[in-house]
Write a structure and sequence with these properties.
2 copies of one chain form a homodimer. Chain A is built from 6 helices and 12 strands. By secondary structure, chain A is α/β, with parallel strands linked by helices. The first copy, chain A, has 2 domains: 72 residues, Hypothetical PUA domain-like, domain 1 (Ribosomal Protein L25, Chain P, Beta Barrel); 156 residues, Alpha/beta knot (3-Layer(aba) Sandwich).
């Protein structure tokens, strides 16, 4: 089966022990029985979003779908990236969250800045988590992207793990396309300003915190495009 | 003024000769007078989307906005890229068109394939052209991305300029992140399969046409994400 044609992974955060049986929730059962047309005895794969890849054997496909967990392997996250992202214009963040998760970003931290604050929006975080899960399933990744609530930039900067590799999206920075690759340090962190840009004090604070300016295109990009371009750069540098 | 804070370019496809005056259309007048709060005697910039950068001096800002074209310079397109793109799932193409234009792609060609056809949609091309114009203005680019109607893949492949540099988004391909840069040949062309992937015959036809497989991430990407990742790779390789 071509890689592109492999079915999506199931996302089962509470994966049981090998030998255990469980009945799939309605949406997963529909996917397995109707979309994939899997039959009793066939296998599907699942992850808990924390590195597990589980083989599930279908033992019943009638009213509900019951699977038996045959085996689980675990893969550590080989690389870790975080995206600190200022507020984009309008409602442009849903697509961004989906794309970052597809590209394998580990953590999405919306940051509030002088020139841009994330609007309060009820239900947004839950929606973003659903989008991250859908992207994990689709891209068959084993590690679910964490989604944070918006926090002030200064607070986010002061809580970064020591020794992180930090990059600031900036038109005046080093050009990514000329052989510059991520260093392999974990986590690798990208900081993208809001649609109005970081102000001088914030930019200075980022430089003091060790962020290196990085130019992602030959023209200015919207916030969400820059965040995506940064994630592409990081994702492409993998093994 | 910081690059990020520079106002958007005006898009005036029928740019007059230097010395000529013209009254801006309502949307441009609103942008200049209300959003940028420009006053008589101040200057704004415009492009015709074909390489011109024009300096316009405001001579009237009252009921309407009248500008005098002071000078025009022309910049050739230093690099050219085309994206041949299979149909993504659902309605995921609007964002893609906007992002490709922001990244400086020159031509967007939707292609119909065995496993995915673009649905007929009235008004879509005009909407995509509006999105491309908005992205040109926002990113202050001088060359407007051309948007084509969907065409069969085989027809698109047979109409590529001889000597193009051609790349096929493919998980089995060469890894972009390890120092592989676009060659600088124009046009540089990316081919991205539909959500179900190219079939074997189509893939073979692309290889015969000179497309080289290129791996854009360490997991499979949705069609529109792969198209975007390809454009990021191309865009980052610029001067």
């Amino acid at each position: 089966m071509a890689a592109d044609a492999a079915p999506a992974l199931l996302y089962l955060p509470g994966l049981p022990e090998p030998g255990a049986r469980l009945e799939l929730a309605a949406a997963d059962a529909h996917y397995v029985a109707r979309v994939c047309r899997a039959r009793v005895g066939e296998r599907v794969e699942a992850t808990d979003g924390r590195g597990a890849r589980a083989a599930l054997r279908l033992v019943e496909v009638r009213r509900g779908v019951v699977v038996e967990l045959e085996a689980v392997t675990r893969e550590p996250a080989l690389r870790q990236s975080w995206v600190l992202c200022g507020a984009p214009q309008g409602e442009r963040a849903d697509w961004l969250v989906e794309k970052l998760a597809e590209l394998g970003v580990g953590r999405f931290l919306p940051v509030d800045t002088v020139r841009g604050r994330w609007r309060a929006a009820s239900g947004r975080r839950a929606r973003w988590e659903r989008l991250a899960i859908a992207a994990l399933r689709q891209s068959r990744r084993l590690h679910l992207m964490a989604v944070e609530e918006p926090a002030p930039l200064q607070q986010a900067l002061s809580s970064l793990p020591p020794g992180s590799s930090c990059w600031l999206a900036d038109l005046s920075g080093a050009v990514t396309g000329h052989g510059l690759a991520p260093t392999g340090v974990d986590p690798t962190i990208g900081l993208i300003g809001p649609s109005g840009g970081l102000d001088d004090g914030e930019r200075q604070a980022a430089l003091v915190a060790g962020f290196q300016p990085l130019r992602l295109s030959d023209a200015r990009l919207r916030t969400e495009t820059a965040a995506l371009a940064w994630a592409v750069w990081w994702s492409a540098g993998g093994p």
